[in-house]
C-alpha cells in the first residue's frame, strides 16, 4: 500500500508564543527536581523562627507574671477578709458583753445589800433577772414562757406529758425553762409539759 505524501511542514510559531509540550519536558504528575535553597533563604527562615520564639517566650513570661500577681492578689484578699471577719466577731462579742455589764453591776449591788436587808435580796434578784431578759430582747432574743398556747415544736421542747382535764389537748400546761428567740433565730426552745390527748 503506498504511503501518502506528507504535507508541507507547518510554519514555526511566532516569537513569544506558547510552545506545545515537547517530549523532553516534564509531564504533569512526574516529579521535578527542585533547586536547593540558597544560604540566604535558610538564614531568613531561621531569623523568622527565632523572632516567633522570642514573641512566644515574651507572651508566656507576661502570662506567667499576670498569673502570679492574680494569685498574690487573691491570697491578700483572703487574708484581709479573714482579718475583717475576726474583727467583726470580736466587736460583736464586745457589744454583747457590754450589754450585760449593768446586769453584773446590779447583782453586785444586791449582794452588797443582802446582809443589811435579807428581804430586799429577792426584789433585787428579780429586778436583775428582768434586766437580763431585757438585754436579751434588745439583742433580738425575746423570752417566751407562755402557758395555755398550742404546742409548737419550733418553739417548745416537750419534757413531760400530763393528764390535765381543764386544758385543751396538745397545749402547754407548764413552762419549766423559758425559751429565748423566735423560731427562725432561737437561742433555745422552752422546756414545757403538754396536756395529753384524750
Report on this model:
By secondary structure, the chain is α+β, with helices and mostly antiparallel strands. 47% of the residues lie in helices and 14% in strands. It is built from 2 helices and 6 strands. It has helices spanning 39-113, 120-138, and strands at residues 143-144, 156-162, 172-177, 179-181, 186-188, 190-195. A 3-stranded antiparallel β-sheet has the order 1-4-5. Strands 2-6-3 form a 3-stranded mixed β-sheet, with no helix packed on it. A hairpin with a 4-residue loop joins strand 4 (179-181) and strand 5. The protein is elongated, with a radius of gyration of 50 Å. The mean pLDDT is 80.
Concise summary:
This protein is α+β, with helices and mostly antiparallel strands and 198 residues long. The chain has 2 helices and 6 strands, in the order ααββββββ.
Topology, please?
Elements lengths: L38 H75 L6 H19 L4 E2 L11 E7 L9 E6 L1 E3 L4 E3 L1 E6 L3
Parallel strand pairs: 2-6
Antiparallel strand pairs: 1-4, 3-6, 4-5
Helix pairs in contact: 1-2
The major sheet is characterized as: 3 strands, antiparallel
Which structural class is indicated by helix and strand composition?
A: alpha+beta
Radius of gyration: 50 Å
pLDDT < 50 stretches: none
Cα(first) to Cα(last) distance is 138 Å
Helical residue percent band = 40-55%
Number of helical elements? 2
Q: How are strands sequenced across the largest beta sheet?
A: 1-4-5
Report mean pLDDT, rounded to a whole number.
Answer: 80
Q: Which of globular, elongated, flat, extended, rod-shaped describes the shape?
A: elongated
Order of helices and strands: HHEEEEEE
Query: What share of the residues does DSSP label as strand, in percent?
Result: 5-15%
Compute the number of strand runs.
6
Amino acid at each position: 500500500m503506498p504511503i501518502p505524501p506528507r504535507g508541507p511542514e507547518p510554519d514555526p510559531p511566532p516569537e513569544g508564543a506558547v510552545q506545545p509540550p515537547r517530549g523532553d519536558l516534564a509531564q504533569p504528575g512526574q516529579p521535578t527536581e527542585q533547586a536547593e535553597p540558597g544560604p540566604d533563604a535558610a538564614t531568613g527562615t531561621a531569623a523568622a523562627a527565632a523572632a516567633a520564639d522570642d514573641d512566644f517566650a515574651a507572651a508566656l513570661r507576661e502570662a506567667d507574671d499576670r498569673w502570679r500577681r492574680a494569685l498574690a492578689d487573691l491570697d491578700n484578699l483572703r487574708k484581709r477578709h479573714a482579718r475583717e471577719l475576726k474583727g467583726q466577731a470580736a466587736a460583736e462579742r464586745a457589744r454583747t458583753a457590754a450589754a450585760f455589764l449593768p446586769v453584773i453591776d446590779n447583782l453586785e449591788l444586791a449582794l452588797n445589800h443582802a446582809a443589811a436587808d435579807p428581804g430586799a435580796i429577792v426584789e433585787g434578784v428579780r429586778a436583775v433577772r428582768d434586766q437580763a431578759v431585757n438585754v436579751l430582747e434588745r439583742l433580738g432574743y425575746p423570752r417566751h414562757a407562755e402557758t395555755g398556747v398550742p404546742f409548737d415544736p419550733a418553739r417548745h421542747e416537750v419534757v413531760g406529758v400530763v393528764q390535765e382535764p381543764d386544758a385543751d389537748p396538745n397545749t402547754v400546761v407548764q413552762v419549766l425553762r423559758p425559751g429565748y428567740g423566735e423560731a427562725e433565730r432561737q437561742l433555745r426552745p422552752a422546756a414545757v409539759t403538754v396536756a395529753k390527748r384524750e
